[in-house]
Design brief:
single chain, globular
């Protein structure tokens, strides 16, 4: 494959990855707020979030491999995982490496979620909010400054992704900090004090049953 073909493939898959990861961020905010998309149930929003995440990883892998194979610049596989070591624009390429490393951490902890626990997984999952802006800066600086300039539509698309993600972050931040979850509801139900009813009091012979019986007898006497 020619260098030009690889460059276009790398740029195209990079833009698609940005759009998909932006969609993942937006859907993540909707899942957190227990919102749903029109025509989809709430669990459908969660399934769409997972599916787009996996598809975004595929396009990101193609983006990285075509960038490494492109002979126009010198990028090694080591530069993909070790930030700021590349001879080619080390700062801006290094930001892409940082974003990729953060993404790997999020993916691995998601795979090991049951073993490491929900709290640890949640702490690492917040790295996605750091990964996304770093990836945007990486794509903008390299795409617009490597001698083969970024098209205006790509810049507009990047701007649209930024606005969408900022809006979703604002939407998520506007919600309550503590949300009711099925597990929380079950725990609250188990720990809440239970007031015995007349049937349960009668079977247990509790003082509540005697008070209920006395109250009923008093009302009958007054009516008589």
């Amino acid at each position: 494959m020619s260098s030009t073909t690889l460059w276009y493939a790398s740029q195209a898959t990079g833009i698609v990855s940005l759009v998909m990861f932006s969609a993942v961020m937006v859907l993540g905010a909707l899942v957190r707020r227990r919102a749903k998309l029109p025509g989809l149930p709430r669990f459908g929003t969660l399934g769409l979030h997972r599916s787009i995440s996996l598809l975004a990883l595929v396009f990101l892998s193609i983006h990285i491999l075509t960038a490494v194979a492109d002979s126009y610049v010198s990028i090694s596989l080591l530069d993909v995982v070790l930030a700021f070591t590349s001879a080619y624009r080390p700062l801006w390429l290094g930001l892409g490496t940082v974003a990729f490393d953060l993404l790997v951490a999020v993916v691995l902890t998601s795979v090991l979620r049951r073993r490491i626990g929900h709290r640890a997984w949640r702490a690492v999952h917040w790295l996605a909010y750091a990964m996304w802006p770093v990836a945007v800066v990486h794509g903008f600086t390299l795409g617009a400054g490597d001698g083969r300039t970024m098209h205006g539509w790509a810049l507009a698309l990047t701007g649209g992704c930024v606005l969408a993600v900022l809006g979703s972050v604002a939407y998520r931040s506007a919600g309550p900090r503590r949300e009711a979850t099925p597990a929380g509801l079950v725990a609250a139900h188990r720990t809440a004090p239970v007031r015995p009813t007349s049937e349960t009091a009668r079977s247990a012979g509790t003082p509540d049953h005697r008070r209920l019986a006395a109250s009923s007898a008093g009302r009958t006497h007054k009516e008589a």
